[in-house]
From TrEMBL:
<comment type="similarity">
    <text>Belongs to the class-III pyridoxal-phosphate-dependent aminotransferase family.</text>
</comment>
<dbReference type="InterPro" id="IPR005814">
    <property type="entry name" value="Aminotrans_3"/>
</dbReference>
<dbReference type="InterPro" id="IPR015424">
    <property type="entry name" value="PyrdxlP-dep_Trfase"/>
</dbReference>
<dbReference type="GO" id="GO:0008453">
    <property type="term" value="F:alanine-glyoxylate transaminase activity"/>
</dbReference>
<dbReference type="InterPro" id="IPR015422">
    <property type="entry name" value="PyrdxlP-dep_Trfase_small"/>
</dbReference>
<comment type="subunit">
    <text>Homotetramer.</text>
</comment>
<keyword id="KW-0808">Transferase</keyword>
<keyword id="KW-0032">Aminotransferase</keyword>
<keyword id="KW-0663">Pyridoxal phosphate</keyword>
<dbReference type="GO" id="GO:0030170">
    <property type="term" value="F:pyridoxal phosphate binding"/>
</dbReference>
<protein>
    <recommendedName>
        <fullName>alanine--glyoxylate transaminase</fullName>
        <ecNumber>2.6.1.44</ecNumber>
    </recommendedName>
</protein>
<dbReference type="InterPro" id="IPR015421">
    <property type="entry name" value="PyrdxlP-dep_Trfase_major"/>
</dbReference>
<dbReference type="Pfam" id="PF00202">
    <property type="entry name" value="Aminotran_3"/>
</dbReference>
Amino acid sequence: MSLLDRHRAVMPGWMPVYYGDDALEIVSGSGRRVTDAGGRTYLDFFGGVLTTMIGYDVAEISDAVRAQIGTGVAHTSTLYLIRQQVELAEKIARLSGIPDARVFFTNSGTEANESALLMATNVRRSNQILAIKNSYHGRTFATMAVTGHRSWSSSSLSPLSVNWLASADRLRGRMAGLNDADLLDAAVDDLREVLATVTAGDVAALIAEPVQGVGGFVHGPDGLLGAYRKVLAEHGILLIADEVQTGWGRTGDHFWGYQAHGVTPDLITFAKGIGNGFALGGVVGRAEVMNAVPAVSFSTFGGNPVSAAAGNAVLDYVLDHDLQGNARRVGGILLGGLRALSYGILAEVRGRGLMIGLEFVRPGTTEPDPAVTLRVFDLCREGGLLVGKGGLYGNVLRIGPPLTLTEDEAREGLAILSGAIATADAES
Ligand code: PLP
């Protein structure tokens, strides 16, 4: 029996999501490349959904983790002082841009967001949260409620959804001649309209991804969160930035995604890349909010010594090697190469640093085309390149390689991607 058959016999039916009948078993990795059980090596432009931020088997990270395991100490984080954890918290607090910042750790992005929502709702004594349409914040009760989809709202939270003209909506807006300033005004008007439907003081927080990840690497117009903030401040509403995909320099021009918006959030959540594959997430936020709800901010394994050791090594690597600068430079090569392509199926190339989205449509229309997107995705894999797919309509390819991607690797991947798009376009 194949591993896929064994998987299907024992795990939920929809898994594994990505390659269906062609599911890959990755058995090893090195740098920006992974090798499957059949011995084929791929260039990885998705980094395990942006988790392998430094790359595979990078000595500095692997050695730090091995050293921690070598001490024999891998225990709960609630019992003792953990030096690795305190050191990591100090670094993140300093980098957060939040004065008087406090940090605590979780095992995942979902837990980080769940905790931030719990803190905000407790501090503001309200269960109302503003969610951006087409967001993704995790798979727990509260985090699934704040996706901006009514269908998910069957939880204890009652989210209000705000439309920042994401994805295909935004594309339609652009094609109808709306520029970023128009889009920003429309989004702020929408927020005001939503707030007009609730009693003042009833809303605890707005949660937003500075660049939507699962939604298809969509960034709202620059300054949008800052413009929101002015409205939120009138109502005493907290701002939570979900930096699970955008943090640590991925977007190139900034260390955090929120910095493109001229605003400092009250709470920032993080995960994914900071562990480079080890389970690590957390929240950094204003002391006033973070200190208010003690019960929320600890868990058995959040920030355990092994994950915290990985986190320290990752963050040191990011800073010592200026990976933000690399994301800007190498991301610029990719963006430039992709924007130079001209094919009917490719409606938009958007992105920041090493977080790039390609939106595919039926030529000459704004109709999302998930089938052609899948074809490009499959052709990339056949060519030896792993990319991500997603977007609300399944018509976005997502490119989020490790931040250590070299210029040569960028050009190699670009060639495979361009060839795949050309083939799919010719076939359509
Ligand atoms: N927030 C964002 C923006 C994400 O992209 C994700 C995961 O994809 C999450 C939260 C959930 O993180 P995790 O899967 O680590 O729980």
